[in-house]
Amino acid sequence: MRSNYSSYWVNAITTKAEGEKYDAAVKFMQYVTSDEAMQIWLDVVGELPAKPSVGLTEENANNEVFGPFIKGLAYANTTKFVNESAQRQILVDMVERVNLAGADPAESLAEAAAAEQALLDEFYASN
Amino acid sequence: MYRNLSIKQKQIVWAWGFLAIPILFYVIIRFYPTGNAMVISFQDWNLLGSRTWAGWENYAKLWNDPVFWKVFANTFLYLIIGTPVSLVISFVVAYHLDKLRFMHGFLRMLYFLPFMTSAVAMAWVWRWFYQPVPIGLFNNFLADFGIPQIEFLRSTTNALPAVLAPAVWAGLGFQIIIFMAGLRAIPRSYYEAARIDGVSTWTVLWEITLPLLRPTIVFIVVFSSIGFLRIFDHVFNMTTNDPGGPLNSTKPLVLMIYQSAFTDFDMGYAAAQTVVLFLVLLAVSLLQLWLLRDR
Predict the structure, then answer these.
(1) DSSP structure class, residue A104
(2) DSSP letter (8 states) at residue A79
(3) Is the peptide bond before A105 cis (omega within 30 degrees of 0)?
(4) Are B86 and B232 in contact (CB under 8 A)?
(5) If residue A4 lies in a helix (H) or strand (E), which one and from where to where?
(6) How confident is the model at residue B295 (pLDDT cuts 50, 70, 90)?
(7) Which ipTM did the prediction report?
(8) How much is the pTM?
(9) Of A83, A86, A93, the CB nearest to B247
(10) In whole angstroms, what is the distance from residue B161 CA to residue B74 CA?
């Protein structure tokens, strides 16, 4: 199995925006998500573009600096965190149980999976 | 209306006018949030959304949470190790410092210095002390004498005492000053009478010094117990990459409250823990006052 990690930013318009400000915000969003803007963002800032139409162009995918990263996006997954520090803590505890408390790795993994599931269930039950 | 009051009544009005300021301040800053926390402990609230009533749900969750019981035990470990150890050390130091004339002020300053140091700076320096060989001071010292390494912070058994040590050290200066004031307040005539009777040093200590230090001891025990029950900064700063870890072995109740409130945004659950901490602090303080009361 091939898998890679990626994270992304989400830009949005607030529900309180109205009239002229709303129109301007829509215009800005249209621009910032355009192929042109994403290419500038890649060239100037160095962050990978979100749209395949920009990211996977011949030129970008073969760039010697960020080419491999762009190719990796084809099989990348993003973890949806419901509580990033709590989910990190579950992982830390899983490793520490094995390293410090001498737990069986498979059991520790199962315990971590159960804890993670409980966290997700609690989050989706109330949201 | 004010003009018709007698001087006596006017004085009362002014007295209450001035007294109202601290009372108002306390009501707004202390009593209102305390009451509010008790209300929130029966609600679900994520700090931004609306508050909904949850009944005893948060307390039930607390009761069934194994981490909470672990944390509860840790909190009491900080108390039952920290308080007696700091009490004995500070008394021994104060007792001997009281008899010392040579460099008395300088030594007293040295003992008081940690009390004035920021807990954050102190915790990070101690964190460095505890690192493994080539970095950590203690393990380097052990290695020089060929003694095996000790895992201070990366151990489920050693971490709590290791975190507690700088906390005890930090409070020592204050307790020594209080003890010395208590020792100075004992009338010299008792000691003179004891010397005329030819009583041993130990008897003087047990029969004169310690009984007459009772109010001082009560104050220090209550004061340091409350301090250890709400320990936070030393723990948080010495275990930042796994707060309260490893495996919750150093996590005190205040740190769990902090995490529930400001990383999980579960205000109801955090408030329920706060209410439990409040009740524990109240019970421990009352118990100590009762145990050490004047008979």
Answers:
(1) -
(2) -
(3) no
(4) no
(5) strand A4-5
(6) low
(7) 0.74
(8) 0.81
(9) A93
(10) 10
